[in-house]
């Protein structure tokens, strides 16, 4: 779980990945558009795990659903930032990234490509993730003018931006 722009968020799940987890562990995460009373988005395109610890990690730090794990897990340590590309996750998410950054400096502005990253599975998953997210914005251009995040601490939707 981490703070993004003051809002607490957790492992991101596409709508079709929600059912991988018990329903009571999943909450909305990001949405676009707006309800009539402006209290919530019209379309939820990303959900999140409502837990600091994933229920599928075993005592050996292995994933119990490895073959069908969510795309965001397959892409780690890469994260999709549509429409810009794939980036290395923040060092506070990963000791491996922390170690590399201690030698090379901050990597959060480096766009990841086949040339500068050898993990083809992770890169492919990050690109799939990016496409899914970006497609939502393209499919609903008017709704995309209003962008929301759901805060796990307050259990409230917060509007991130509104474009006129
Ligand atoms: S890789 Fe597996 S154990 Fe790790 S967060 Fe994803 S689903 Fe959970």
Properties at a glance:
two-stranded antiparallel sheet; alpha+beta; globular; binds iron/sulfur cluster; 164 residues; 21% helix
3D architecture notes:
The protein is of the alpha+beta class and 164 residues long. It has one domain. Helices cover 21% and strands 26% of the residues. The protein contains 3 helices and 9 strands. The strands form 3 sheets. The chain has a 5-stranded antiparallel sheet. Strands 1-2 form a two-stranded antiparallel sheet. A two-stranded antiparallel sheet has the order 6-7. A hairpin with a 4-residue loop joins strand 8 and strand 9. The mean pLDDT is 90. Iron/sulfur cluster binds next to loops.
Question: How far apart are the termini?
Answer: 32 Å
Q: Describe the sheet with the most strands.
A: 5 strands, antiparallel
Number of alpha- plus pi-helical segments = 3
Percentage beta strand: 25-35%
Structural class of the secondary elements? Answer: alpha+beta
Secondary-structure blueprint of this entry?
Layout: E1 2-4, E2 7-9, E3 12-13, E4 26-32, E5 43-49, H1 71-75, E6 78-81, E7 85-88, H2 95-104, H3 120-139, E8 146-151, E9 156-162
Antiparallel strand pairs: 1-2, 3-5, 4-5, 4-8, 6-7, 8-9
This protein binds iron/sulfur cluster.
